[in-house]
Amino acid sequence: MNGEKRRYSACEACRRRKVKCNGGQPCKPCDNLQLPCVYSTWSVGRSRRGIRRGKVIHEYANSSPMAGAAQTRFSEDLLYSLIPYFRSGRYPVCPVLTEEETRTAVADAVNGGKDGALGYAVAAVSLEYMNSQTGPGSGPDKETIESLVRLSIASKGPIVPDFEMSLKAVVTSSFISDALVTVGKLGASWMHLNESIGMLNLLRIGEAETLDTLDPCERARQLRLYWMLFVHERFLVLHMRRTRVLLRPLREYPQQVEDIPPEVHRGFLHIIKLFEHVDQKFVNAVVGADEVDDVDPEWIEAKANALETFSSDLPPGLSEAHQADQIISAQWMVIVLWQVAMSRFWLSSTTATSGIMALTYPIAVTRKLQRLITDIDTEAIQAQGYGINQKLYELTIAIAEVIPLIPPDRLKLEVDKVDSFVWIARYLLTQSTVLDNQKLILEEKLERIIAL
Predict the structure, then answer these.
(1) How far apart are CA 167 and CA 128, in angstroms?
(2) Mean of per-residue pLDDT scores for the chain
(3) Residue 249: strand, helix, or coil
């Protein structure tokens, strides 16, 4: 060892490998394995005087993404008061939990039970409906929703090797994803959605072999869960411009069973069929993927016509809120197709061109949207929460991009439609489910249009 003094602490390589170090330079284990032998500069016996006990653990705990979740508490009364909002607002589009299961989950959130994570997730997705019904700005804000999401994630815990997967775990991750969309955390929402889809696949939910072992009510419930994730995935794929859908449409729709009201069943079935229009070819066209050689103007027109026909044939018994949601959702998909056509220079600015292939098509839908919002109680639209206003926002931005392109002489003929755009934009600026940065963009667009 070249006469060097032996060290009394292990070198970094031995310390990390947890093997005995003889203190040489190089030490014997490092010399045998031809590893770099480096000793820490921290000297042996260095005093820890002045260093607060538990400092490292304290700093780690407070820098954790979940810091603060454990300290956050919500009153029992608040959590239970959200159940009616969940049943009226969330359940019709996600009919996978019975009222008893919902109450049990919320009770577990209050008392620290096994389904507490689901209870907090239910509360988080219910708050946006409470916001919409108590008026803009008067209900709990997005920070409250995010706090509930953090509590749900903390209660759920990490997916460890012995993690217990269940239908409720799938629903929990799905609701967390939904709530994260509401607060604008789209990346995290996408991750939790994929966690939910992963568990769905591992549990073989939706597969014939699994479904055949179930009674009619549970079979219908599991089919509804699969289709619920199918719809949510397609919404996020279009909203975030993702490149791939994971869930394929099943050959079977859920049947009407005794544990779900007929009007909820009909409405949910219609939502499924609406989002079935968003197939992989649709997604490829939107994101400009390589597999779009067979997308042409005729395909765009056919898909748009199918969507408009579908939205005009709503099933009977739908609430005003769900009528508005489905009409606006279909119109949103058509505008997405119009944007595809515009990006490929397929649009025409001539007055002879009408329909989706006209440059001014978004202007034509402004009156329709204004009538929809005014004819249907605005509370009914607000009751659909974040998703419907996000679709309205994207529609409005598309319209704002087109108006400045219209020649001044023709713009004079479209003044009533421009007024409708201004009305819709101002309506969105009052909505608590439109994100702050989106309102800034909308205000900028609105000022530009008014100045024309």
Answers:
(1) 24
(2) 84
(3) coil
